[in-house]
Specification:
The chain has 3 helices and 12 strands. It is mainly beta.
């Protein structure tokens, strides 16, 4: 048995994202359009020449490292959320983070290029990336070749149903108003994230009132859910 070749890559960029923890990140890109972030080019790659003409493309492929779960290794069989969270399937049949090589790919919308001193940023939206994610490569999304009309997936052929109906308590609404000047799309972001129902599949079987917390930007958001009713109860600075 021959050894497989080994490759070493440098990160060319890092992601600045509202998602500070893995919990509550949407399972696919584009599902939460109100999620805005930045890709910062780093080290020798912080050069405006690398992104010349990139704004001719509306969307980008981002190739990145699952850095938060890398140390946990990989599994040949994983539990896929779209299969109810209990049935196992082959890791290469899924987009699980627990891969032989912890590499992910995501499509994001390019909102613009910003140069601040020696720093180069790509403003993006619709991301599903954890804050601090290392980026290995960025490529343009080419609609005529990357969008295949005849493609299908028996496992996930349609977008997941948005199961939760989201509302805000009186206290949370007051806190939203207080934070509006610094976080103008916060209500939309929270609503879109929670509509995806980020709870683990086994938690959805519990019909009792459940309370959860998630971190977006530098905010701690507490929310409770029963059946398909979700209420945000507090929004506080950490």
């Amino acid at each position: 048995m021959t050894n497989s070749p080994t490759f070493n890559f440098n990160a060319i960029a890092v992601v600045h994202s509202p998602y500070k923890q893995k919990f509550a990140i949407p399972r696919q890109p584009g599902l939460v359009s109100a999620a805005h972030g930045k890709i910062e080019l780093v080290a020798d790659y912080s050069n405006i020449e690398l992104v010349r003409d990139i704004e001719q493309h509306s969307h980008l492929w981002v190739i990145f490292v699952f850095h938060a779960t890398q140390a946990q290794g990989w599994k040949s069989l994983v539990k896929a959320p779209r299969l109810g969270g209990n049935k196992k399937t082959g890791v290469l049949s899924t987009r699980s983070t627990f891969r032989p090589n912890p590499i992910g790919m995501s499509v994001v919308k390019l909102e613009g290029v910003v140069k601040q001193g020696s720093k180069i940023y790509l403003n993006i939206s619709g991301l599903d990336l954890l804050d601090g994610t290392p980026v290995l490569d960025i490529k343009p999304y080419i609609p005529y070749s990357d969008s295949i009309a005849s493609a299908h997936s028996a496992m996930a052929n349609t977008a997941p149903e948005q199961e939760l109906l989201v509302s805000f308590s009186e206290q949370a609404s007051i806190e939203l108003n207080t934070l509006a000047s610094n976080y103008p799309e916060l209500e939309t972001l929270i609503t879109q994230v929670l509509k995806q129902d980020p709870r683990p599949a086994y938690k959805k079987l519990n019909k009792n009132m459940q309370e959860y917390g998630m971190n977006l930007y530098d905010l701690n958001i507490r929310w409770q859910v029963k059946d398909n009713q979700c209420e945000v109860i507090s929004i506080n600075l950490q």
